[in-house]
From TrEMBL:
The lineage of its organism: Bacteria, Bacillati, Actinomycetota, Actinomycetes, Micromonosporales. SUPFAM superfamilies: N-terminal domain of the delta subunit of the F1F0-ATP synthase. PANTHER family: ATP SYNTHASE DELTA CHAIN. Belongs to the ATPase delta chain family. It is found in: Cell membrane; Membrane. InterPro entries: ATP_synth_OSCP/delta_N_sf (IPR026015), ATPase_OSCP/dsu (IPR000711). Transmembrane segments: none annotated. One of its GO terms (cellular component) is plasma membrane. It comes from the Bacteria. The keyword Transport applies. This is ATP synthase subunit delta.
Length: 274
């Protein structure tokens, strides 16, 4: 987001946080659904999106238009958040849409946090991403943009309902729409990152040839926490193809100590000697 949009979005986050203190998690899930409905309306109606972000119109006027359109159709909490967003300045109409979508995700994460389930939601999103990545037909079915998101959401529900937290299921459905233009897999990864950020943890993706013991994982977490000066959430993928060792990715940092990579480097070095 550009500077003006970021400032307005922060005001929306503050409005959501203030409301969240007074309500239960199920109300926040309703707010998220309302915000997603508003986002769909903005996506389907570009003229309305432009009108609600038009810098030539007074902020109060834009907020009044939003209130006229939405009053009685969304809850009071959602209406306050949306009018806060529309009253502020946006660099362009698309960033208003992005802001509404992002706040819906924030509302779902806040609901999980209130229930003490945020870490579990983070893990469930990651594990489902692994399941999808390992099943090519499933990955194709969920990533097919030519199939309406509602139909793909039915598949998600059949796979996750009763096996994952309701917020996990809803966030996975949100990921089907892409989140900021991302594909489904990238959207799921972004949700895992957002959950970790909300828990004020650094996310580390670890690939190993065989499952780590609890002691090995505990020592790895402690080492990474020491390196990065904050708590670390480790997401482990087991891939026998790396033969041995491990690969660790933290943000833009990659530590590749896999045996497969070392063997590949050795082969290249030997080939260069001839």
């Amino acid at each position: 987001m550009h500077a003006a949009s970021r400032e307005t979005y922060r005001a929306g986050v503050e409005a959501l946080a203030s409301y969240a203190k007074r309500v239960k998690s199920d109300t926040l899930r309703t707010v998220a659904d309302d915000l997603l409905s508003v986002a769909r309306l903005l996506s389907d109606e570009p003229r309305l999106r432009r009108a609600l972000s038009d810098p030539a119109r007074d902020g109060k006027d834009r907020a009044g238009l939003a209130e006229t359109l939405l009053k009685g159709k969304v809850g009071a909490g959602t209406l306050k958040i949306v009018t806060t967003l529309t009253e502020g300045r946006w660099s362009n109409a698309h960033e208003l849409l992005t802001g509404v979508e992002d706040l819906a995700i924030e509302a779902l994460l806040t609901a999980a946090d209130k229930d003490g389930q945020l870490g579990e939601v983070e893990d469930e999103l990651f594990r489902f991403g692994q399941v999808v990545a390992s099943d090519a037909p499933l990955q194709a079915a969920l990533s097919d943009g030519s199939v309406p998101a509602e139909r793909r959401a039915t598949l998600v529900k059949s796979l996750l309902e009763g096996k994952a937290q309701p917020v996990t299921v809803r966030l996975t459905e949100v990921a089907l729409a892409g989140i900021g233009g991302r594909g489904f897999a990238a959207a799921l990864s972004r949700l895992v990152e957002l959950a970790a950020e909300r828990r004020e943890q650094q996310l580390a993706y670890v690939t190993v040839a065989r499952t780590l013991t609890e002691d090995q994982e505990r020592r790895l977490i402690a080492r990474l926490a020491q390196m990065y000066g904050r708590e670390v959430s480790v997401k482990v993928t087991v891939d026998p193809a790396i033969v041995g060792g491990m690969s660790v990715r933290v943000g833009d940092d990659l530590y590749d100590g896999t045996l497969s990579t070392r063997l590949g480097d050795a082969r290249h070095a030997l080939a260069g000697d001839h």
